[in-house]
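Project standup — Tuesday

K.O.: blocked on the structure for the chain from last sprint. Re-posting the sequence here as requested.
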Amino acid sequence: EVQVVESGGGLVQPGGSLRLSCAASGFTFGSYDMSWVRQAPGKGPEWVSTIKSGGTSTDYADSVKGRFTISRSNAKNTLYLQMNNLKPEDTAVYYCSGARGMTRYWGQGTQVTVSS
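H.V.: unblocked you, prediction finished:
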């Protein structure tokens, strides 16, 4: 059974930091490109970042570049997103996704709220 479980969300003040984790099982995590996608209230999904299966190539949306860092541990089947200097506009549900060819898996999401 495939499982993708995000954790680490919560309420943080502007300028603060959070680290999201995504624990995956039931598929060969190390051979999948992994991404974070977020959805703010009343808006469509927004791609945030992707890390290739080998872990050496990363890409970021302009809105988070320089503030967020994506990483992975293939040994632990876990994806991470370090989020620094958070802004109110980063408030969203953050989803973890794994993709290989036509196959894609999604987690249930974790809520991040940035507010004073």
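K.O.: great, moving the ticket to review. The longest strand covers residues 92-100. DSSP finds no helices and eleven strands in the chain.
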